Amino acid sequence: MTTKSDIFLQEFVLGFGFLGGLFTWVGVDPEEEVVRALLRVAIPNNEILISLVIVLSILVSTVVGILGTWKMAGLLGLFVVGMAWVSGFIIAVNSLTLWGTLLLIVVAILGPIVCDNYRENSQS
């Protein structure tokens, strides 16, 4: 059975934080590319509408990710996800790969702890 701390680690710390930072460093947003490809098929020759839908979908998914992180782990959870984003951003730089990896390990350890502590404190 998957616990909430496992979900927090997988979805928010690794998915939203680490991969978000990695894709930011690379300069590609996979969500944008998928939405753009789908919209080009559904709405051909309308770049303004496609751009508007892409911006709105990215904005909504970012807000949902931040609110989900806040709900599952609070302010410390947001800090852990931010640290995961930094580790994803710097892990691809050759001179900083070791530091990015170490930061990712620390974040992977802290994520479930922060999530469990937040849930225990909010239930009391």
Features:
4 helices; mainly alpha; 86% helix; flat
Q: Rg to the nearest angstrom?
A: 17 Å
Q: Count the E strands.
A: 0
> Which stretches of 5+ consecutive residues score pLDDT under 50?
none
Helix/strand-derived category reads: mainly alpha
Q: Report helical residue fraction.
A: over 70%
**How many structurally independent domains?**
1
Percent of residues in beta strands: under 5%
How would you portray this structure in words?
With 124 residues, the chain is mostly helical. It has one domain. It contains four helices and no strands. The chain has helices spanning 4-26, 30-42, 47-90, 97-123. It is flat. It starts with a helix and ends with a helix. The model has no long low-confidence stretch (mean pLDDT 89).
Entry summary:
This protein has 124 residues and is mainly alpha-helical. It is 86% helix and 0% strand.
